[in-house]
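Weekly sync, protein design subgroup
Attendees: M.S., D.O., the rotation student, P.L. (late)

Item 1: inverse folding check
M.S. brought a backbone from last month's batch and wanted to see whether the design step gives back something sensible before we order anything. D.O. pointed out we never logged the input encoding, so this time it goes straight into the notes. Structure tokens as presented (179 positions):
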């Protein structure tokens, strides 16, 4: 099934001391390129954040307002592409694979979204395939997306989840990069 990808890569990486988390290298590849490899099957890929050098060509946009948070980033990313399914991922999912993305898209069934749980069982709204219309409606309901909570914004959606998996583990601190 055709899908678009929205990759959120605009955060300040404050827990990394301001280092650009998207450009951290793990096993010879940046975190951003690892996610772009996993989403290479997308009809359209849009990275929300500052333009960086990546291994493949993608579209770029920034949230409005700038530094407005992940919901503002989702709103900006949804303006690109037309596929009925949108895979939303953050740039800090280094263990995400193309097979995981396929699992997300194939797992939608009758739900509004199907997402990964991290290895501790936490639901990852920023590692989820969504029906474009459901995601757009949820964002529209919050009005101004600046600094809105992703969990609260998406709380009304019918979401299903995978079993816990390392693929859903994001990298928020240096310790998270340890194998």
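Designed sequence read out in the meeting:
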């Amino acid at each position: 099934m055709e899908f678009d990808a929205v990759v959120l890569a605009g955060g300040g990486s404050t827990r990394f001391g301001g280092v650009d988390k998207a450009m951290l290298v793990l096993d010879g590849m940046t975190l951003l390129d690892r996610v772009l490899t996993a989403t290479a099957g997308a009809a359209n890929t849009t990275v929300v954040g500052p333009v960086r050098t990546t291994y493949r060509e993608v579209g770029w946009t920034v949230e409005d307002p700038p530094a407005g948070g992940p919901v503002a980033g989702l709103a900006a990313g949804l303006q690109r592409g037309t596929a009925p399914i949108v895979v939303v991922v953050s740039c800090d999912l280094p263990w995400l694979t193309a097979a995981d993305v396929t699992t997300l898209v194939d797992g939608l069934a009758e739900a509004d979204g199907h997402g990964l749980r991290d290895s501790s069982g936490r639901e990852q709204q920023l590692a989820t395939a969504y029906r474009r219309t459901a995601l757009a409606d949820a964002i529209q309901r919050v009005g101004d997306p600046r600094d809105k909570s992703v969990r609260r914004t998406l709380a009304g959606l019918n979401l299903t989840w995978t079993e816990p998996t390392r693929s859903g583990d994001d990298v928020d601190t240096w310790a998270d990069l340890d194998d």
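Discussion: The two ends are 33 Å apart (CA to CA). Strands lie at 3-8, 25-26, 29-30, 44-48, 59-61, 85-90, 113-117, 123-131, 159-164.
Action: P.L. to compare against the previous round before Friday.
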